[in-house]
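Hi D.,

Good news: the full-assembly prediction came through. Inputs first.
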Amino acid sequence: MLTNLKEQPKDKILGLMSMYREDPRPTKVDLGVGVYKDANGVTPVMRAVKAAERKIVEEQISKAYTGLAGDPAYAEAMTDLLLADSVDRARLAAVATPGGTGAVRQAFELVKVANRKARVFVSDPTWPNHVSILGYLGIEVVKYRYFDTATRAVDFDGMMEDLAEATSDDVILLHGCCHNPTGANLNLSQWQVVIDLINDKGCLPMIDIAYQGFGDGLEEDAAATRLVASSVPELLIAASCSKNFGIYRERTGLLMALSAKAESTAVTQGNLNHLNRQNFSFPPDHGARVVTTILTDPELKADWMAELEEMRLGMLGLRQKLADELQTLSGSNRFGFIAEHRGMFSQLGTTPDLVEKVRVDNGIYMVGDSRMNIAGLNEQTVPVLAKAIVDAGI
Ligand code: LMR
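Then the structure:
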């Protein structure tokens, strides 16, 4: 039986991780996978996470199952963080999921259950796993223009022209903030135009938000999601706690589904629970409990927010330093977009060949589509990267 199996295509982000590990050069720089690193190249356990874990170890008296949707306190704390008072909670169903990827997967499965004809519109480019999961589930993918490789900003006219093709059978997938992989984001007036189109066409918006707090701040990064939530009848949101709580391996995500009417919420919730049951039964609890503990304890929450803000400002500082360094070395302002982008990533907008050249010549690893993880840099490696970019003729 197993001899029938064919090799699967390699995930380009994860493939890069192993290539980096095998590179013996001590000067190598990892700008691949989206993991935050401090100035010493360490992905730290955040202070509030450590404290919450200690508290859980002390106070937890049982590890019996929670519920198919996870602990309701987790969904409530996450809803407060992400949506605040932008929606009528009676219209909201939610399930805990194994990471943000689990939420994305369950969202697509829900779409498939709700409408076999649904196509999913995704930005070009988007996080590669969006396209991969949709392909695996046999859901048609429609790419909409998003990134202008000349300006390295959003091609908003192109995007709207392509989204105009969506029908009431379709889903439009949007990144809530800190677009992965480009780092280029819509402003709130552009979001409003997208919302008007969604309401006009009657299609279902889906927001993937994995970097709240990494862009302009916790509240600012939630603003677009809240605007959508308060303006549309139905909405899916896949949220991840991997990055902003630094709990990557704990697999902590949440899928929220907003129904048009409160009377539909129970059925929506039942479908979400059913999907969890079919795929893995109960969602993982530890990371969700850590997040809930932090968000419901004012002291821990304040400390978490302070540390997250330090991380955000650190990444912004690195962006500015890289843009400045590139301006000096290239004698032009064509890399100014790096300081304008937000979140963990910036897409250089160059060819895979030049990305490969930078890797071979300098041991600098970025994803083939020229996505750089800004958090993989530090004060010492910024000038090294800037020189490598200019030397490669990018
Ligand atoms: C990334 O985009 O690098 C992260 O979201 C990690 C992943 O799972 O791809």
